[in-house]
Amino acid sequence: IPGIPGLPGQPGSDGRDGENGPKGEQERGDKGVPGLRGQPGKVGPIGLPGPVGIPGIRGLPGPKGEAGDYKVTFKSAFSAARSISSYPRREQPIRFDRIITNENGHYENRYGRFTCRVPGTYYFTYHVT
Fold first, then answer.
1. Which of 82, 78, 79 is nearest to 129 (CA)?
2. Residue spans with biased composition (Low complexity) (predicted)?
3. pLDDT tens digits for 23-45?
């Protein structure tokens, strides 16, 4: 015959750990609040040169230069005529027998040759009658 239930007994000791469960899928939490700005970093290497800028405004004129010797100029010029009525030989320079002007002696009438001894641009003209 059942009697009256008694008082509850003391709790028992913990049981053994069970087996590990299956690995769950990782999920990320919400983005946190940004932190405070950190200290400046170390100085980096020097960069490449930038593109060339636009030219600046024109500067003031420079000082006046020293006076030059305007009377000294290098010239080379000649003027000659041919009074001989015979034709010059073929494939040969034309020799002029009458020299009118021969500055600095650059025309050699013996050979019918003008030798340029002053650098520059020369302009030759002739008149044949």
1. 82
2. 40-60
3. 878 888 889 999 999 999 999 99
| pLDDT score for 14 | 87
List all residues 6 or more positions away from 97 whose beta carbon is below 8 Å from its beta carbon. 81, 82, 83, 84, 109
Contact status, residue 109 vs residue 96, Cβ threshold 8 Å: yes
- 68-113, pLDDT tens digit by residue? 776 667 788 889 998 888 888 888 888 888 999 998 899 998 888 8
Tokens of 57: 């405004």
How many whole angstroms separate alpha carbon 113 and alpha carbon 80? 12
Q: Which of 122, 109, 118, 113 is nearest to 75 (CA)?
A: 118
Residue-range domains of the chain with CATH: 72-129 (2.60.120.40)
Q: Which amino acid appears at position 108 of this protein?
A: E
